[in-house]
Design goal:
By secondary structure, the protein is of the alpha/beta class. Helices cover 40% and strands 16% of the residues.
């Protein structure tokens, strides 16, 4: 059996050995090109003093690149038991540096495993859980969060939504949440041919760095306001915000936004102001009920 540059078997051999055919139900699209996985790892910066959290490592292509590039410690969260078995070989090759967690990333909290070391999330995310995971990381409390950067693979369309600016067709709830708490940048694209099986769309690696002091507002209320506003994005805000269950006109007046404006043209600062106005309204209603 031939070996890869890191001294481990080629990923195609690993796939055969552990019968690791990608499962559509798990959103699996594996990266076989170790040059590409190395590029992803290097785009995350110096990892020699960093604990990396990886979601959905599959056969371990990116995991191996992270360790080969010097990551101090990798916590790999994988729910596919076939992949967990394959990752044990990687753990043996890098003693004490790879911790494999057999769990669902949507519910697993890695923070108890990290300690006080700097942490970074780097992953080729399973497509079917990529957006929920990102929203969870963006709305984490307290802030600044437990990680110092996110380097993540998304479908190109999702990546464009993450970095979108007001006024663009891609601007929406995801762009507001990402821009509110992070500085986001598309690093590079990855062609469908790089994956097995090849997806129907181009993918992109996105780097998000947390802002130390985002615009003040409640994360949960910002989500509610953006869900309402973009849920009917072609309607004026005086209409779309009615789904919040309060009169939208005072909210818009308090935020300094014209009632005839549409969600796609409202800045992140504007949405944060709407969330604060909504919070004040909810507090007022609560006070009135207590009388």
């Amino acid at each position: 059996m031939t070996t890869a540059p890191d001294g481990l078997p080629p990923l195609r051999e690993v796939i055969r050995q552990y019968d690791l055919n990608p499962k559509k139900s798990l959103g699996q699209n594996f990266l076989f090109d170790l040059n590409l996985t190395g590029r992803i790892a290097r785009s995350a910066g110096d990892l020699t003093q960093t604990t990396v959290v990886e979601v959905g490592p599959g056969p371990g292509g990116l995991t191996r690149a992270l360790l080969h590039e010097g990551a101090k410690h990798v916590i790999a969260i994988e729910r596919d038991e076939r992949a967990v078995a394959a990752l044990q070989d990687v753990a043996a090759h890098y003693p004490g540096r790879l911790e494999i967690v057999s769990d669902d990333a949507l519910s697993f909290d890695p923070r108890p495993l990290i300690g006080d070391a700097p942490a970074r999330i780097i992953a080729n995310l399973p497509y079917n859980i990529a957006t929920p995971l990102l929203i969870g990381w963006l709305t984490a409390e307290p802030w600044p969060p437990w990680y110092d950067a996110l380097v993540l693979m998304f479908q190109r369309e999702v990546a464009e939504r993450i970095v979108a600016a007001p006024g663009s067709d891609s601007y929406g709830r995801l762009g507001v949440l990402a821009g509110w708490r992070c500085e986001a940048k598309i690093m590079f694209d990855v062609a469908p041919s790089a994956f097995v099986p090849p997806p129907k769309v181009t993918s992109s690696v996105v780097r998000l760095v947390p802002r130390a002091m985002p615009i003040p507002c409640d994360a949960g209320l910002l989500q509610r306001v953006t869900e309402a506003a973009f849920g009917q994005r072609r309607k004026m805000l005086r209409q779309s915000l009615k789904s919040l269950g309060v009169d939208p006109l005072p909210l818009l007046e308090a935020a300094g936004i014209a009632p005839t404006e549409r969600a796609e043209n409202v800045s992140i600062e504007g949405f944060a102001a709407l969330a604060r106005a909504f919070a004040a309204t909810r507090g007022k209603v609560s006070d009135e009920r207590s009388l």
